[in-house]
């Protein structure tokens, strides 16, 4: 008599059927219909930035505007409106117009020298050749240093008693005695310009280098095949196609130079004889030395208005150049 082997398949089926059934997954709640709109999503994503700008820019700007129309000593607080007395006091100050002229002169010198040197450095390290990466890093390294720290470093280098530059010039026979790099208006200005160029040349070189690398190599090859010289290629191809990067560099350089404060405050403190006082230094003097926040706020509003007008003029000029 043969005994039939148990049907394993049937046994496994019965075991699976005996297990308790898994509960069905609940469908995920769908997002509300109003959130599915891209406009609403965009507003939601931009809300944190909008709040940040409102709290740290718009509200302080409104407060400065209010202070510029009131008699507002630093320690006494608001004493009531006095418009437009604060603006009249600013323009009648003996340091206002000299500070404006010096700031504009400093801006022109720094912009021309800094952007010219940055473009030259970008052209030198444009090609991927041996050592190009090393020099790019070396040129950019000073930009990693804070402006206040760089100013303190150069203040020590420029010191005629403890700084090494004066001793080096004496040993080379260039100078007969200790050299005062910050002792005259001209030398103080040029010494500060050298500091700014040393620190920011690598930063602007990087901006221009990115613009240079975006220019297709085929354009250069076609120009060379047509017999164009290096000067013609630079004037006809490089500069026109580099215009967006140059525009950004020009905007940043001009704005930063007009708002110069740290370097002059640390190196010269406005001297000698108030010859290196910038507009922002004048705001600092009005607020924290003369204790008049109203006049300082009025001067801040004037500087903001000048920067807005200048930026609008730059954008319009660049737009016309692109359209032509």
TrEMBL record:
Asked if the keyword Transport belongs to this entry, the reply reads: yes
| Stretches with biased composition (Basic residues) | 11-28
Q: Where is this region: Disordered?
A: 1-32
Q: What is its main location?
A: membrane
**Matching Gene3D superfamilies, A to Z?**
MetI-like (1.10.3720.10)
Key words, A-Z = Cell membrane, Membrane, Transmembrane, Transmembrane helix, Transport
InterPro entries for the chain: MetI-like, MetI-like_sf, UgpAE/MalFG_permease
Q: Where is the ABC transmembrane type-1 domain?
A: 100-314
Q: Which CDD domains match?
A: TM_PBP2
Q: Cross-referenced Pfam families, in alphabetical order?
A: BPD_transp_1
Ranges annotated as spanning the membrane: 43-64, 104-125, 137-158, 188-212, 233-261, 293-313
> According to its record, how does it sit in the membrane?
Multi-pass membrane protein
Location(s) in or outside the cell: Cell membrane
Hey, which family's this protein in?
Belongs to the binding-protein-dependent transport system permease family.
Q: What is this protein called?
A: Carbohydrate ABC transporter permease
């Amino acid at each position: 008599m043969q005994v039939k082997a148990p049907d394993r398949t049937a046994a496994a089926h019965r075991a699976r059927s005996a297990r308790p059934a898994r509960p069905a997954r609940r469908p995920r709640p769908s997002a509300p219909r109003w959130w599915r709109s891209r406009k609403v999503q965009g507003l939601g994503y931009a809300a944190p930035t909008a709040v940040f700008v409102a709290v740290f820019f718009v509200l302080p700007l409104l407060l400065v505007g209010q202070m510029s129309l009131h008699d507002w000593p630093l320690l006494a607080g608001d004493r009531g409106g006095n418009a437009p007395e604060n603006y009249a006091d600013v323009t009648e100050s003996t340091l206002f117009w000299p500070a404006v002229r010096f700031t504009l002169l400093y801006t022109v010198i720094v912009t021309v020298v800094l952007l010219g040197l940055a473009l030259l450095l970008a052209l030198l390290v444009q090609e991927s050749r041996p050592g190009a990466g090393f020099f790019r890093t070396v040129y950019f390294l000073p930009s990693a240093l804070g402006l206040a720290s760089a100013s303190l470093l150069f203040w020590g280098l420029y010191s005629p008693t403890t700084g090494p530059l004066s001793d080096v010039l004496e040993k080379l026979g260039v100078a007969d005695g200790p050299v005062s790099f910050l002792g005259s208006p001209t030398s103080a200005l040029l010494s500060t310009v050298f500091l700014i160029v040393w620190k920011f040349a690598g930063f602007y070189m990087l901006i221009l280098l990115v613009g240079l690398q975006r220019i297709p190599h085929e354009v250069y090859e076609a120009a060379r095949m047509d017999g164009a010289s290096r000067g013609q290629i630079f004037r006809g191809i490089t500069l026109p196609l580099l215009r967006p990067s140059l525009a950004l560099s020009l905007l940043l350089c001009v704005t930063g130079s007009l708002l110069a404060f740290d370097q002059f405050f640390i190196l010269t403190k406005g001297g000698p004889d108030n010859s290196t006082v910038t507009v922002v230094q004048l705001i600092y003097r009005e607020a924290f030395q003369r204790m008049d926040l109203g006049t300082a706020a009025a001067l801040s509003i004037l500087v903001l208005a000048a920067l807005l007008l200048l930026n609008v003029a730059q954008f319009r000029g660049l737009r016309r150049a692109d359209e032509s």
